[in-house]
Design a protein that fits this description.
single chain; 303 residues; mainly alpha; Ferritin; Rossmann fold; 2 domains; two-stranded antiparallel ribbon; globular
């Protein structure tokens, strides 16, 4: 029987160095997302520089950084309109008061956003994407956000400057993720990050014979489970929550029944992989999951 092609195969070159040959993933293996081609382009840019199993460690932080900036920009524009709108509780003719509102951290956090420092904003990185030190600028952006918001520690790795990825390919990744297709609707950031995560562990981590202990439940199965459970109210618990797919689908189920998931459900979960857990906790808008407790744990490891 002929050998089935996998996403990548390793072979020794004449120099003895391992090389990776990529094959475009079978559609059957891909999560239900609309930007497979863009993610494949990202993988091609990383090819030969890092191991396929590590692609997600370079892609997810960039997307997370992008979504933090998007949420900040949306809330900032909303507040700018409110301070000028007569009849709004934020309306003011005093420029000093207006600046205070626009720089009030609480006004952003209540909408699931953060005030992003200038040098960590996505538009700043896009403007400087062609700079020779763009990899260093990326690491500085990650470091700046960690210092400003300690809850981001562990999910914004400073790995770009020390990587083998070329300056041109880093520029290409920034431009790639600036496309409109990656501008998720408000509240869907966690869903998009989770599905990108699924794409990479399905198509690349598995090429080394294992998924590094990482598994995920296909989105279609999660939707079926949620439809069977009918979580219209109360608590939703997932003992191996991964990137939060069960919670995202539960919130959508409630919304589809014309109710507000903020007031109807609370979500609880545990996940052994810190990186995955933190992406969900900090990537999802609190408006989508007002009451949520996600802790580190490995329930199945205790069975």
């Amino acid at each position: 029987m002929p050998k089935e092609k996998t996403t990548s195969e390793r072979k020794k070159g004449s120099s003895g160095v391992e090389q990776t040959t990529l094959f475009k993933p079978d559609n059957k293996a891909q999560p239900d997302i609309s930007f497979e081609n863009e993610l494949w382009d990202a993988a091609v840019r990383l090819r030969g520089n890092i191991a396929p199993a590590d692609y997600k460690h370079y892609v997810l932080p960039l997307l997370f950084l992008h979504y933090l900036s998007l949420k900040y920009e949306r809330r900032h524009k909303q507040l700018e309109l409110l301070v000028r709108e007569k009849g709004s509780e934020y309306f003011t003719n005093d420029p000093k008061v207006a600046r205070g509102i626009l720089n009030d951290q609480d006004e952003y956090k209540r909408e699931g956003a953060y005030i992003i420092p200038e040098q960590a904003r996505w538009d700043y990185l896009v403007r400087h994407a062609q700079d020779d030190d763009i990899k260093l600028k990326l690491d500085r952006a990650m470091e700046l956000l960690e210092k400003t918001y300690p809850e981001f520690r562990g999910i914004l790795p400073k790995i770009y400057a020390g990587s083998n990825i070329s300056h041109e390919n880093v520029t290409g990744l920034i431009n790639l993720f600036s496309r409109d297709i990656f501008k998720a609707d408000t509240g869907r950031e966690s869903d998009v990050l989770g599905r990108v995560y699924e794409y990479f562990i399905t198509n690349f981590a598995s090429t080394e014979g294992t998924r590094g202990g990482e598994f995920f439940t296909p989105r279609s199965i999660v939707k079926l489970l949620v439809a069977m459970m009918e979580p219209k109210e109360g608590k939703v618990f997932d003992p191996a929550c991964g990137s939060g797919g069960m919670f995202v689908q539960s919130a959508r189920f409630v919304e589809n029944h014309k109710k507000n998931p903020n007031s109807e459900i609370s979500v609880y979960g545990q996940e052994k992989t810190a990186e995955t857990r933190n992406y969900f906790k900090n990537g999802a808008s609190p408006k989508s999951h007002t009451s949520r407790k996600i802790k580190k744990g490995n329930k199945y490891g205790n069975i």
